[in-house]
Amino acid sequence: SQTIHQWPATLVQPVGSPLSLECTVEGTSNPNLYWYRQAAGRGLQLLFYSVGIGQISSEVPQNLSASRPQDRQFILSSKKLLLSDSGFYLCAWSRQGEQPQHFGDGTRLSIL
Amino acid sequence: DQQVKQNSPSLSVQEGRISILNCDYTNSMFDYFLWYKKYPAEGPTFLISISSIKDKNEDGRFTVFLNKSAKHLSLHIVPSQPGDSAVYFCAARGTSGTYKYIFGTGTRLKVLA
After folding, report:
1. Closest-CA residue in chain B for A10?
2. pLDDT of A20-74, one tens digit each?
3. CB contact, 8 Å: B45 with chain A?
4. CA–CA distance from B4 to each of A9, A99, B35, B92, B107 (Å)?
5. For range B79-104, the mean pLDDT
6. Most exposed residue of A10, B4, B66, B76, measured as fewest CB within 10 angstroms of its CB?
């Protein structure tokens, strides 16, 4: 069966510090990978998605970036965090076609 | 502009009764719809989906109805159980072949024992 791992579960970072959140998927190959953010009281906002190694599509302009160095690894990064980057970050994967996305347990990011 | 709307932020239902969660969308090009359930401090869990070529899909206690003319879908849970208490998100996918899913803001369901 497939599993998705996301870490850390919680993170507190000062403004201006860098960020690296990692997500890995097991039990499948060539998955589509996604990063979402859920701000307080809002729905899930798609940040990035990837259909293959090195292929990243960005949905919203921001100071975050994503990379996919391996088939089942997806990394969300920032060089300098802003207060507005606080939120709940979720990684997800899916197969091709009309397939649902399966989510990790998320990272609660607080910026001080 | 919110393309997928869940206008009820919360809903309380008695155990054993029917829970009906509603979702409206604005884009007639959406062709695939999903419902997710989310517990606190966890990621959303996929519940049920429906393609735009259907108007109903059933899986156990969960049934999703799609009314394309009204751009409305609903999730029915019968009978409701206390373990169903969670936040429910509906999501819609854009034109076929894209990977972008647009989520509603969620409805918090509380099933009272």
Report:
1. B41
2. 999 999 999 899 999 999 877 778 888 999 999 999 988 876 789 999 999 999 9
3. yes
4. 28, 19, 12, 7, 12
5. 87
6. A10
Query: What pLDDT is recorded for position A1?
Result: 80
Residue A83 phi/psi, 5-degree rounding, is -55, -35
| Interface-testing mutation among A49, A98, A109, with chain B (most B C-beta atoms within 10 A) | A98
Contact B51, A98 (CB under 8 A): yes
In degrees and rounded to multiples of 5, residue A78 shows phi and psi of: -150, 145
Asked if B99 and A105 come within 8 Å (Cβ–Cβ), the reply is: no
Give the separation between CA A2 and CA A61, rounded to whole angstroms: 31
Rounded CA separation A66/A82 (Å): 17
Nearest CA distance, B80 vs chain A (angstrom): 24
How many angstroms separate the CA atoms of B29 and B68, rounded?
A: 10
Encode pLDDT of B4-52 as tens digits.
999 999 999 999 999 999 999 998 889 899 999 999 888 999 999 999 9
Residues, chain A = 112
- Residue A73 Cα distances to A6, A60, B91, B99, angstroms: 10, 21, 24, 18
Q: Supply φ then ψ for residue A40, to 5 degrees.
A: -55, 125
How far apart are the CA of B25 and the nearest CA of chain A, in angstroms?
14
State the pLDDT at residue B2.
76
Query: For residue B49, how many other CB atoms are within 10 A of its CB?
Result: 19
- The residue whose two tokens read 């009764």 is B17
